[in-house]
Amino acid sequence: MKITKEWLKKHGACSKGRNWFNKFFPDGGDIDAVLILVTQDADADDSWVSWLMSRAEYKEVGWLEGLEIPGSLDLSDCTLPDGVKLPDSVGGYLDLSGCTLPEGMKLPDSVGGSLYLSDCTLPEGMKLPDSVGGSLYLSGCTLPDGVKLPDSVGGYLYLRGSNFKTTDVPEHLRSRVIL
Q1: Which residues pair with 73 in a beta bridge?
Q2: How confident is the model at residue 59, as a pLDDT?
């Protein structure tokens, strides 16, 4: 799918987003190329990935495979297809809130910022990252039995409305729980 200046204007893109796009893609660009550059450019807004994917009704996330994400990645409210491969590491926050997470999907081993999994259902066998640099949002989340929290969480654990038992929170993280 090709994204153009006209397409962005028609779909209500903000002026900052249109200016950024015009700088790199004056003649338009393939959606995968645009998405990759958004995740790599420090001047791009992290929310543009989910905005662009939702407006384009674009479900492909193969463009993520093999990428290192130095900043944040916002895929909130996206439907992720079976076999999706997220990066091994995300330098900033990772927002998957409201997503349908498919069986067999692997979350990154490390998230430098906060991890948002609010209002998700984690499939059986899904492992949470080993390390989350910010807060871990599991509010309204349905977690499979036996899921293990990360060894390291830099912020708070938001568990309100989830099925996670606070008695299963490791001792070293209990002071960080918000119900």
Answers
A1: 94
A2: 66
Work out the average pLDDT over 69-97.
84
Token digits of residue 62: 């193969």
Mean pLDDT of 10-37: 90
**What is the identity of the amino acid at 114?**
S
Q: What does the pLDDT average to over 54-62?
A: 72
- Inform me whether the pLDDT recorded for 52 exceeds 70: yes
109 and 144 fall within a common domain: yes
91 part of a folded domain: yes
Strand segments (E) across the chain: 2-3, 29-30, 73-74, 89-90, 94-95, 110-111, 115-116, 131-132, 136-137, 152-153, 157-158, 177-178
Instruction: Check whether residue 106 and residue 20 sit in a common domain.
Output: no
| Polymer length of the chain | 179
Q: Is the dihedral of CA 162, 164, 167, 173 positive or negative?
A: negative
Within a domain: residue 54? no
81 within some domain: yes
In this structure, the answer to whether residues 104 and 126 fall within a common structural domain is: yes
